[in-house]
């Protein structure tokens, strides 16, 4: 009973924050499917990673806010539709409503046949930037959850090492928790420069943060 009451309280607090969240309002006004768009936007505006003409892979893309941001960023006039100067390949376990010009693959990034589909979409090209907002469903058992998170990040790093240009960048969501230091070490062994980034749009109470790895070692 106690747990039920406290989880109801948490839900109420979440709903209250969500309704009053300026990024939720901004996303609705600007036509983004989720407030998450502003996390990638801030990272990009600070580090200047995304440029027209690039090939960008968006891992864990649903509902599609990051792909929408990428699409606008690579349009000649920032438009959500029409001309697109570049290539965006998005992938998620869940379906994603289509975004004009974005190639979408539905599947589990941990599975070999899904990786193969991604390789087919790449058609021998290397990505300029890989972004990963993938987050596994959490069980609440912290050691198991940490292992799941770490595994997805390891796969994203491995994918970047195999399919990204040497001077490319990987942006990946990570969580402060038991695996954080290991994940940072992993990034450091793969990239010449590693920057942690907590965008303003990432809620303070959330343990999520982002690591940006630049330049493959
Ligand atoms: C926070 S959401 C991403 C939000 C997205 N960046 C946006 O802007 O709309 C995390 C996504 O990761 C996906 N995901 C989790 N594990 C995955 C896996 N193994 N393979 C592919 N997608 C995965 C989930 O289905 C979920 O849609």
Outline the structure in words:
This protein has 217 residues and is α/β, with parallel strands linked by helices. The protein folds into two domains: 1-30; 34-216, Rossmann fold (3-Layer(aba) Sandwich). It has helices at residues 2-20, 22-30, 37-47, 65-73, 112-122, 142-163, 180-190, and strands spanning 55-59, 87-92, 102-106, 127-132, 164-175, 191-197, 208-216. The protein has a seven-stranded mixed beta sheet, with helices on both faces. Helix 6 links the parallel strand 4 (127-132) and strand 5. S-adenosylmethionine binds next to helix 4 and strand 2.
Topology:
Layout: H1 2-20, H2 22-30, H3 37-47, E1 55-59, H4 65-73, E2 87-92, E3 102-106, H5 112-122, E4 127-132, H6 142-163, E5 164-175, H7 180-190, E6 191-197, E7 208-216
Parallel strand pairs: 1-2, 1-4, 2-3, 4-5
Antiparallel strand pairs: 5-7, 6-7
Bound molecules: S-adenosylmethionine.
S-adenosylmethionine (SAM) is lined by residues 33-34, 36-37, 60-66, 91-94, 108-110, 133-136, 152.
CATH class value of the largest domain: Alpha Beta
Strand count, sense and barrel status of the largest sheet are: 7 strands, mixed
* CATH architecture label name of the largest domain: 3-Layer(aba) Sandwich
Order of strands, main sheet, comes to: 3-2-1-4-5-7-6
Query: CATH H-level name of the largest domain... which superfamily?
Result: Vaccinia Virus protein VP39
Q: What letter string, H or E per element, gives the SSE order?
A: HHHEHEEHEHEHEE
**Which term fits the overall shape?**
globular
- The name of the CATH topology of the largest domain is Rossmann fold
Number of H/I helices: 7
Low-confidence stretches: none
* Terminal-residue CA separation: 53 Å
Number of strands: 7
């Amino acid at each position: 009973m106690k747990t039920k009451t406290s989880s109801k309280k948490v839900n109420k607090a979440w709903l209250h924050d969500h309704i009053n969240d300026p990024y939720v309002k901004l996303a609705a006004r600007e036509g983004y499917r989720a407030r998450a768009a502003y996390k990638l936007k801030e990272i990009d505006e600070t580090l200047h990673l995304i440029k027209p003409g690039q090939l960008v892979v968006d891992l864990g893309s649903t509902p599609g806010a990051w792909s929408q941001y990428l699409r606008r960023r690579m349009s000649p006039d920032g438009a959500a539709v029409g001309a697109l100067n570049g290539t965006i390949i998005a992938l998620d376990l869940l379906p994603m409503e289509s975004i004009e010009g974005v190639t979408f693959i539905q599947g589990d990034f941990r599975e070999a046949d899904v990786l193969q589909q991604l390789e087919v979409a790449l058609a021998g090209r290397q990505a300029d930037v890989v972004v990963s907002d993938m987050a596994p469903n959490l069980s609440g058992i912290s050691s198991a959850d940490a292992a799941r998170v770490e595994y997805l990040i390891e796969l994203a790093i491995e994918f970047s090492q195999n399919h990204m240009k040497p001077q490319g960048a990987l942006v990946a969501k990570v969580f402060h928790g038991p695996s954080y230091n290991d994940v940072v070490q992993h990034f450091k062994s793969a990239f010449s420069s590693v920057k942690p980034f907590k965008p303003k749009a990432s809620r303070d109470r959330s343990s999520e943060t982002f690591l940006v790895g630049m330049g493959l070692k």
